Amino acid sequence: MSEEIRRGLVGVIADESAVSKVVPETNSLTYRGYPVQELCEACAFEEVAFLLWNGELPTKAELAAFRAEEASQRAISPALHRVIADFPKDAHPMDAIRTAVSFLGMEDPETADVSEPATRRKAMRILAKVPTAIAAAARAAKGLPPIDPDPSLTFAENFFHVVFGKVPAKEVVKSFDVSLILYAEHGFNASTFTARTVTSTGADLHGAITAGIAALKGPLHGGANEAVMHMLKEIPGPEAAAAWLESRFDHKALVMGFGHRVYKSGDSRVPTMTKYANIMAEVVGDRRWMETSRVLAEVMLERKNIHPNLDFPAGPAYFLMGFDIPLFTPIFVASRVTGWSAHVIEQAANNRLIRPLSHYIGKAQRSVPSAAERG
Ligand SMILES: CC(=O)SCCNC(=O)CCNC(=O)[C@H](O)C(C)(C)COP(=O)(O)OP(=O)(O)OC[C@H]1O[C@@H](n2cnc3c(N)ncnc32)[C@H](O)[C@@H]1OP(=O)(O)O
Ligand SMILES: O=C([O-])CC(=O)C(=O)O
């Protein structure tokens, strides 16, 4: 066996997958064969969720059944509401949703059943309940009561409803829906690989998704969409952006929302998300964040040859939609539940325990000293 070490598993092909294909050379991303840009313009998030889980887009009847099932599962139990109400008020919403999904795992009637039909039913329940739990925790932290989900609303409309108590204009809902489609799936990214690793041990879907949420929180992964907005707020305006970046370069600091492990010449999702972030700027009548973003992207490319990733336009888009910054990565969770679940189903269907090796660099073997010798 080769002793070559691939730190960070860079370039390692760990398994096969039929869920999505990322082609960095052409900046292309397809879900089950369909370009994600086309899905964004032609489909709703629910259709894409169905596609990821079933391999084909739904017929009208299949979509109606999927929507009805998702809408009927949105309520969370009084027990979970009580637990959420008792969360520390300053808990990060990612910790809140990680804990809530773990709790859902204890309540679910089929938690221990890792058969494919049960996993599919559980995936639907998690997808439906995650927005309710995210919103209840966010509202509880502000001393506000939870809002019951509305089964007559789409997934995206209902997300706004449970967070704010109202559904915004259709352009806003469309921009949000597009972001959900773009965030839904991305191959063997860190959180999905985590979920697959948990699944490979024979553990259940709630465990895999709880672990996926933990991995997504990190600022090198999903947490970057929040970091982007903090960064934009720190920069006084577009005219100050180039000088601000130079000071980051002087300190060799990371610029959040830039760079990607797979894409080296541009993230395939960025043009679509930027288009919808710009639509948000027009709707709200506030172009400053997108102007500052444009300068940052130009200077990063010119000075470092590094392109923005999806988190870069998603951050200001969510801010312009009115979401508090700590809710940005939980929104990513609400979407990525679809991709994680598709991968869990795929992993379990053709499982092999994920267990790599390490190259040992510690002390050479030695004898345990007696207590007296240790002094
Ligand atoms: C949805 C998502 O999860 S997308 C990713 C979101 N994460 C971020 O936006 C965080 C900022 N970006 C990063 O930290 C990195 O680009 C990662 C983690 C995404 C990818 O990391 P890697 O694939 O390991 O990139 P790698 O370290 O090889 O980068 C190559 C070079 O570009 C530099 N670089 C990469 N990204 C950035 C950045 N955002 N800011 C400044 N320099 C960067 C690296 O420091 C490295 O420089 P060096 O060769 O002088 O050491
Ligand atoms: O693919 C990655 O490494 C990170 C990413 O963009 C995603 O998970 O959407």
Automatic annotation (TrEMBL):
It catalyses: oxaloacetate + acetyl-CoA + H2O = citrate + CoA + H(+). One of its GO terms (molecular function) is citrate synthase activity. SUPFAM superfamilies: Citrate synthase. Keywords: Transferase, Tricarboxylic acid cycle. Pathway: Carbohydrate metabolism; tricarboxylic acid cycle; isocitrate from oxaloacetate: step 1/2. The active site is at residues 260, 311. Coiled coil: none annotated. GO terms for cellular component: cytosol. GO terms for biological process: carbohydrate metabolic process; tricarboxylic acid cycle. It comes from the Bacteria. Pfam families: Citrate_synt (PF00285). Belongs to the citrate synthase family. This is Citrate synthase. It comes from Humitalea rosea.
